[in-house]
Design a protein that fits this description.
The protein is mostly helical. Strands 1-2 form a two-stranded parallel sheet. It has a two-stranded antiparallel ribbon with strand order 3-4. Strands 5-6 form a two-stranded antiparallel sheet.
Length: about 270
């Protein structure tokens, strides 16, 4: 596999069982492709330092709500982390090094900082992939509270999530269990990369869009829509043999896809039938 050093580091990290993947390291390896001179250890040390400073501020009582409040005070009041509501689609919001440096991010990267600091103080938390937003919650039995890392660590409950979804979709939404499902480490990283994919696609940065898709497919090789999108990007970049391979594989896997006729026309244009 001919991968850059950063891609190799990412690939090696995600070859482990899901629970052994170090999210911070993997996220920094994603950033390393954008910033080749980045030193991942510098940012891992920064997270260690945050946890050490936070440890000094923790209450004697380890009641989860009080610990969350202590983390919130440290990250948002003391360090001034905040959600970038002014320039949400700035790609820097998706790179962990920039989020740590600038104290600005989007829901998933601020959640990552929060999760990593919490893990280092032995307070287990998990990511929650709510549609349209990303939350975290303490991994503690019988306590169902959610933390919105994008909005200053706001503590919310399931009913609040339902209301937010109704606002998002502009119609009443009944909360389904899958809306608040815990995400795996691979799913977490794929969601980060999907954000980058769409940002770069909107900016018409095709090579960077391709790089995001390639890493999503390293995480989940069977994602047919990502395979299709990679084929379409290959086509736009003039990598025609690779485009043919991906688009043919896509049609093989989903011959009745809604866009199958368009893909077949494209393959005909490229001089290849199905």
């Amino acid at each position: 596999m001919n991968l850059s050093s950063a891609r190799q580091y990412f690939y090696q990290e995600i070859q482990q069982s899901d629970d052994r993947i170090d999210l911070a390291k993997a996220a920094l390896y994603i950033a390393l492709e954008e910033y080749p001179n980045l030193d991942p250890e510098e940012y891992l040390n920064a997270l260690d330092t945050m946890a050490w400073e936070l440890q000094e501020r923790l209450p004697s009582s380890r009641y989860p709500l009080r610990i969350v409040q202590s983390i919130n005070q440290y990250l948002y009041d003391d360090l001034k982390f905040s959600g970038n509501k002014i320039d949400y689609y700035d790609p820097r919001n998706s790179f962990l090094n920039n989020v740590i440096d600038r104290r600005l991010g989007i829901p998933i990267t601020l959640a990552l900082v929060y999760l990593e600091v919490a893990r280092r103080i032995d307070f287990p938390m998990v990511g929650v992939g709510m549609p349209g937003h990303f939350l975290i919650r303490p991994d503690v039995p019988d306590i169902e509270i959610f933390v919105d890392a994008f909005n200053g660590g706001e503590i919310i409950f399931a009913q609040d999530c339902e209301e937010r979804l109704s606002q998002l979709y502009q119609q009443p939404v009944t909360l389904q269990p899958e809306f608040l499902a815990v995400v795996s480490n691979r799913q977490f990283l794929a969601r980060m990369l999907t954000n980058l994919k769409f940002i770069y696609m909107k900016q018409e940065e095709l090579e960077k869009t391709l790089a995001a898709i390639e890493r999503i497919l390293l995480l989940f090789p069977g994602l047919t829509l990502e395979m299709r999108d990679r084929g379409l990007i290959y086509y736009q970049l003039g990598y025609y043999p690779q485009a043919v391979d991906d688009l043919q594989n896509y049609l093989t896997k989903v011959p009745d896809a809604h866009d199958a006729s368009m893909i077949r026309r494209l393959l005909t244009e490229l001089g290849s039938g199905e």
